């Protein structure tokens, strides 16, 4: 007697494309050159000690000159008509430099939320055009730790306080999901107070936003708003994995370089077997993280029905790898890794903050378990 078998709905298998195209590599080269010129380690460290959330010249070059802000926006709405794969490449490079730039929050999450509304004209389409050009930035007014599965209204109406909104101090527009629907609210308008908070990650500012009878433009009703916010957070969580990959890759590369140059007992410390094993193990983790991050970006780009699962897998894995890589970077740099002058602490703080953004690794593991559950026999 044979055991009963589990059956699933049949559909043609789709092999994800994890490789980088030539266009993606060209985009990487342009973004990396810009960040090397405008966001090297001393510049980023200095920026964290200033009152300016980010460098407007850097943002203008990245968003408008390179065109990165409009990668997800169709050409007919003023964007580049690219995909999440190209946006993922930009985020990898931003992760490598931990540059203060509102790319993830404005050009991915807010943009994807507006795109989900499907408007080809009206205020949502007009705002998309402005975001694509880099002329303005927007943020989704939900706590940075909100997972895609936790999407929903944060306020009953345009009245109340929402805390922990990433990049809100630098945003021009807030996308506020309420019980009435999704509103666009100008941060400079009456009844809007943006109070900067002290974040762990000094390269990504957080704020508490208080609305007191604020005026806003209704973009969608409650049902459409919930769907749009969920899609925006899903794209944010999926592409955050690429930023975490960039963090891990920089930490590994910098650690290998340092241990080759640092000598003890007349030998490079990287030649000691114990350190070789630690860095080899970290290399394997980074390679696996690249596969998970690329799979999530490709699933989002192709509109795969498995995108939620791919995103959950990527976040469940990549957040831990980024933190581990940053911790190893600090430890294997010895005393200098703990100094304020060395950028290692910025990568550790970004990795720690990212590990909670758009849902913790634990919440994403629970999502994987739920989405991958096989039907009963």
TrEMBL record:
PANTHER family: ACYL-COA DEHYDROGENASE, ACYL-COA DEHYDROGENASE FADE28. Residues 21-121 form the Acyl-CoA dehydrogenase/oxidase N-terminal domain. Belongs to the acyl-CoA dehydrogenase family. Its cofactor is FAD. Gene3D superfamilies: Acyl-CoA dehydrogenase/oxidase, N-terminal domain (1.10.540.10), Butyryl-CoA Dehydrogenase, subunit A, domain 3 (1.20.140.10). Keywords: FAD, Flavoprotein, Oxidoreductase. One of its GO terms (molecular function) is flavin adenine dinucleotide binding. This is Acyl-CoA dehydrogenase. Residues 230-370 form the Acyl-CoA dehydrogenase/oxidase C-terminal domain. It comes from Streptomyces parvus.
